[in-house]
Amino acid sequence: MDNNKYVKIPVSVLMDKSICGNAKLLYGVIIVLSYIRNYCFADNTYLAETLNTTRRTITRLIKELKDNDYIYIVNDKHKRKIYIKDVPTSSINVEDLF
Q: What is the rounded CA–CA span in Å between residue 17 and residue 53?
């Protein structure tokens, strides 16, 4: 199965009530864009176009993910690198969700 054809969001992130749904979706997009290099270098304009939203919203969502320890950012010269932090495995039984 090709990892670039869908977005996977860990259950622990999906069930986290401290971040909004759009932040969860952005997290999934960042995971997909990090697949090759282990980091995402997309700018806010690209992410906004991908999620059909504004750059300002992306800025807020990135801050939300960062504040909740889901991502960290390294600014390397003229390129921002967004890294996914290790997400603890969820104790939620997926079968209980459906």
A: 21
Q: What is the tens place of the pLDDT at every residue in 68-80?
A: 999 999 998 889 9
Find the radius of gyration of the CA atoms of the chain. Answer: 14
Determine whether 16 is exposed, middle or buried from the number of CB atoms within 10 Å of its CB (0-12, 13-18, 19+).
middle
DSSP structure string for 14-62: HT-TTS-HHHHHHHHHHHHHTTTTSSB---HHHHHHHTTS-HHHHHHHH
Instruction: Supply the pTM of this predicted model.
Output: 0.85
Residue 5: HSE in the Cβ half-sphere, 13 Å Cα cutoff: 2
